[in-house]
Design goal:
6 helices, alpha+beta, globular, 9 strands
């Protein structure tokens, strides 16, 4: 039972972020990458790095960065860890994991997923949406799901790709943006009944019984 160490880890990283923001309010509000700060806590530097890679503000990577930081702490307690933070996932598993993609009102929502292979390193599986949740997006995608070795990078990249998807005509543009971000393994973009994908990823069908919606 890792509830208590997970809780303490979340509190620690939240406190670090809150204290940094008090002295650096631009970190909270900027929609563009910021310069490096060698004196910042590691989680802050990780967010700045991810944001610079993706071309977005650092808070675009916050959920993935927190999931990643907490997950790496928990790896000291268990070889297999999954941390989910509002649609952004850090996972390290000795077995293949199937991850469903929630895409709001899209008919593809929770019907399509990714097979995340077992690996000797952790994965980040992060999803950004313009139609689900409170996160800021300048696009209209129902879901942009990114697979990468870093959850912070996957989170920032999902935002960057989603910002450019206004209509089905922009799906290829979204894939081009994903290709331009170094370090991504793959991406899935869902807009209405349309889907586009790129990279070394394996899509899979999700059946209702796998997500508790069937008998």
């Amino acid at each position: 039972n890792l509830r208590e160490p997970a809780y303490q880890s979340v509190l620690r990283y939240r406190y670090q972020l809150e204290q940094y923001i008090l002295g650096h309010p631009e970190f909270l509000h900027s929609l563009v990458p910021l310069g490096e700060d060698e004196f910042a806590p590691p989680i802050v530097r990780r967010m700045i790095w991810a944001a610079r890679c993706a071309g977005v503000g650092p808070m675009a990577a916050v959920a993935g960065a927190v999931a990643e930081a907490v997950g790496r702490d928990l790896l000291r307690e268990s070889p297999d860890v999954i941390v989910e933070n509002g649609g952004d996932i850090f996972l390290r598993s000795s077995k293949e994991v199937k991850v469903g993609i929630f895409a709001g009102a899209s008919p593809l929502s929770l019907r399509i997923g990714l097979r995340v292979p077992a690996a000797d390193h952790p994965w980040g599986v992060c999803t950004s949406s313009a139609t689900v949740g409170p996160s800021l997006s300048f696009g209209h995608a129902d879901a942009v799901c990114v697979l990468a070795a870093s959850a912070a990078l996957a989170d920032g990249a999902a935002t960057a790709v989603g910002n450019g998807v206004q209509s089905p005509l922009d799906l290829e543009r979204g894939l081009e943006k994903a290709r331009s971000i170094e370090g991504l393994t793959g991406v899935v973009i869902i807009l209405g009944d349309k889907l586009a994908a790129w990279g070394q990823i394996q899509l899979t069908e999700i059946v209702p019984t796998e997500i508790g919606q069937g008998p």
